[in-house]
Specification:
Elements (H helix, E strand, L loop, with lengths): L5 E5 L7 E3 L2 E3 L6 E2 L1 E11 L2 E10 L8 E5 L5 E6 L2 E5 L2 E5 L12 E9 L11 E2 L2 E2 L5 E2 L40 E3 L7 E5 L2 E5 L11 E6 L2 E2 L10 E4 L8 E7 L2 E5 L4 E3 L3 E5 L7 E8 L8 E7 L16 E5 L5 E6 L14 E3 L8 E7 L2 E2 L5 E2 L18 E7 L5 E6 L21 E6 L7 E6 L6 E8 L2 E9 L12 E8 L8 E5 L1 E3 L5 E4 L8 E4 L9 E5 L8 E5 L5 E5 L8 E4 L9 E4 L5 E3 L5 E3 L8 E3 L8 E4 L2 E4 L6 E5 L15 E3 L8 E5 L5 E5 L16 H9 L26 E3 L1
Parallel strand pairs: 15-58, 16-23
Antiparallel strand pairs: 1-5, 2-3, 4-14, 5-6, 6-11, 7-10, 7-12, 8-11, 9-10, 12-13, 16-17, 17-20, 18-19, 18-21, 21-22, 24-57, 25-26, 26-27, 27-28, 29-30, 30-33, 31-32, 33-34, 35-36, 36-37, 37-38, 39-40, 40-41, 41-42, 43-44, 44-45, 45-46, 47-48, 48-49, 49-50, 51-52, 52-53, 53-54, 55-56, 56-57
Length: about 750
Amino acid sequence: MRSPTRRFALLAATTASLLAAGTLAAVSAQAAAGCSVSYKVTNEWQGGFGTDITITNLGDPVTSWALTWAYPAGQVVGQFWNAEITQSGANVTARNVSYNGSLGTGGTANFGFNASWTGANPAPASFALNGTNCTGGTTPTSPSAPASPSASPSRSASPSPSAPASPSPSPSTPTGPNGRHQAEKLDRGLISVRSGSGNLVSWRLLAGDAANTGFNVYRGSTKVNASPITDSTNYLDSGAAAGSAYTVRAVVNGVEQAASASALQFTNGYLDVPIQNPGGYVANDASVGDLDGDGVYEIVLKWDPTDAKDNSQSGVTSVVYVDAYKLNGTRLWRINLGRNIRAGAHYTQFQVYDYDGDGKAEVAMKTADATVDGGGTVIGSSSADYRNSSGYVLSGPEYLTMFNGQTGRAMSTVSYDPPRGTVSSWGDSYGNRVDRFLAGTAYLDGARPSLIMARGYYTRTVIAAWDFRNGSLTKRWTFDSNSSGNSAYAGQGNHQLSIADVDADGRDEIVYGSMALDDNGAKLWNTGNGHGDAMHVGDLDPARAGLEEFKVDEDGSKPSSWVADARTGQVLWTTPANGDNGRGVAGDVYAGSAGAESWSSADSGLRSVRTGAVVSSRKPGSTNFLAWWDADPVRELLDGTHVDKYGTGGDTRLLTGANVHSNNGTKSTPSLSGDLFGDWREEVIWPVTGDTALRIYSTPTPTTRRIYTLMHDIQYRLAIAWQNTAYNQPPHPSFFIGDGMGTPPVPDVYLR
């Protein structure tokens, strides 16, 4: 249940005094203080709850604040954001942080936290602000009589006017990462990439780093930069030997901090991570997560057999394996999904994320009887075999399992929701559309991640949200297009999904193609344009408020592509119907046009996302993935095993992967691409020919642009988690990166 919102009127005593010319000046008798507080329990789960608290200053300006209250039932505050919170017994104090202490008249400050509870969760009975109990309204902060006159002969006998509050400094970043959303506590991700006759040393700018944090780079024990680096998070060490050892040290307020871990060596422009082929298998999609809590990513890899099938194809397939590897090639575990999970792009969608907030990522996926976890334990029946003569699995139990990321052992297994039910209710009777699965991760409560598992998009669409807390999976909500009032949402899904806070309320929505669901599973909007193969959600037009969606359509009677407001679903422009439009991309690939551009298979020319107008008659040479690779913020083209830069006269090759292969047939996608190491530019992972290693490429090009690691931008991090889902698509952050971009935002996270 959700506790009701509680509002309190508070009187705040302004205790500031002025000291001038050796004389204490009294605060004006007319100065007044007061405020109201909105205390909301945003959600509750077994043993815990989340809050949202807003203070509104009704009186004269204040330069700092402390809000106090007592919990009547033993609740204990845990993670917090936008305030510094301490607790002693039942008594709790929340103090402003550096960027929200100054409150003018009518000004507000918002903060929140997660807390634990047992038995009951009543709201506090009262609050006090700056030491004064709630009395309601506003009152003077000093007696109505004038203060005693000072000894100064020039002093007026009338009360001194109150001095204006000193403005709080407005740094571009808080002193600590006390944002709203749980995020990974990563290390610097330091790498050294061979670049010509030198090494490009690159590292992360992390949430919690001040905007003016500098860095010193050390080759061995020798500092190689003359002064702290403040304009970027990379350094080209010209003339240095390949394989030189590097560390980096932050410089905070002139003080050098401890050294980072030693740099990963990309001696030939890439890092090879050895992997263990089960025998004749193909290394397929991958994801990353900090599985053991050391601040370093591990890789989770899906192995596909060579007889994997599309859902439309009959035939028995071999089993699917999922492995976890450290970057030195140490295999942590292997999960055998068993004979009752078919192999193919639409069957196994795995999520790697820290769902319980313990600082270690878990791994979630659909399982069945005869799945064997990373510790050798069989889930369900070891002998059950539900494959029919055509190789489809259309009977038998279906499960959802949360695995321990460090050991691969099953921690919680529940019945898969949405269930199979009647096969023909999904659009055919032979087993194609019933087993179209999607998966993602979303911050539905605005603070902690939840698991999204979905089934169906051609006709019936069912999406379920799960929480993993205290070792157990519990269902948060289910949306079913078959439910009363939801029928218009059938057939609107894509071959992938996107997760984004489209309404800017701090909680994520699920963009499912031509439709979107709110964070509580309620219908948000529906364009009615139907199913499609590709979509992109991000700040594609920075001149507009909020996010946009670009999507292509399969239905030949619908627009071949369109752009919509991601908050409302309002379609902003379309291109004419032109059959099944199977490929489409949106991103800023051309500096000659403001904002992002879009292009697709069934449309000629490169269009402005802002206006829909053709800005170049020549489309990019590929319609696939994107990657930030060179020095500027304009994005590059990633397709097959190469990276290219778009030009109106032709594309320029920047990278060709050596002895590697792409995945997923004609989709030609990497195992994974994203900001995995170093600065904000993106890495690409391809399997080597023969599938004995994963080869990770990183840019050798220095840049003077400085952006927080994209993995601390929640929308981007979630996109890395869902990238392996069905028809893989590239990630987009919550803010615009491109030509003419503004100052990148500070990550709204706290670290675990």
